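Why should sequence recovery work at all? Because a backbone constrains its sequence more than one might expect. Tight turns favour small or flexible residues, buried strands favour hydrophobic ones, and helices have their own preferences. The token representation captures these environments compactly. In the example below, the structure is given first.
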């Protein structure tokens, strides 16, 4: 790739407790500042999935929520029907009902979809 088609890597690390994860997104250089939140969301997703695998759904929920908070709402896209708000409500309800593992998994899935929507708006690619 050359010229305007080159992508720069943006890497961000996030920590929760003794766990650290890195997220990476490849983005056109002009968009690199906005890509940090997307990379951070991927780092939070990685942390959350680690917590789920380790049998700690409460920390998985916290990591998912941190990623969702940092990323923010997905940008509007007339070509995409965004149902993540409804799905997020349902996932949070699962957590409130005591189905923390299920709710955490769903929240992490939503975080990933929102990261993809943000990346699409930036003309970026998720690494990994």
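From this structural description, the recovered sequence reads:
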């Amino acid at each position: 790739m050359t010229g305007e088609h080159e992508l720069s890597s943006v890497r961000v690390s996030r920590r929760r407790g003794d766990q650290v994860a890195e997220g990476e997104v490849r983005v056109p250089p002009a968009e690199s500042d906005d890509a940090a939140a997307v990379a951070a969301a991927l780092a939070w997703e990685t942390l959350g999935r680690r917590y789920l695998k380790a049998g700690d759904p409460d920390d998985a929920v916290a990591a998912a929520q941190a990623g969702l908070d940092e990323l923010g709402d997905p940008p509007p896209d007339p070509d995409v029907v965004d149902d993540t708000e409804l799905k997020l409500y349902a996932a949070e309800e699962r957590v409130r009902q005591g189905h923390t593992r299920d709710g955490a998994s769903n929240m992490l899935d939503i975080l990933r979809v929102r990261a993809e929507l943000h990346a699409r708006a930036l003309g970026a690619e998720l690494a990994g």
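A few observations help interpret the result. The mean pLDDT is 91.
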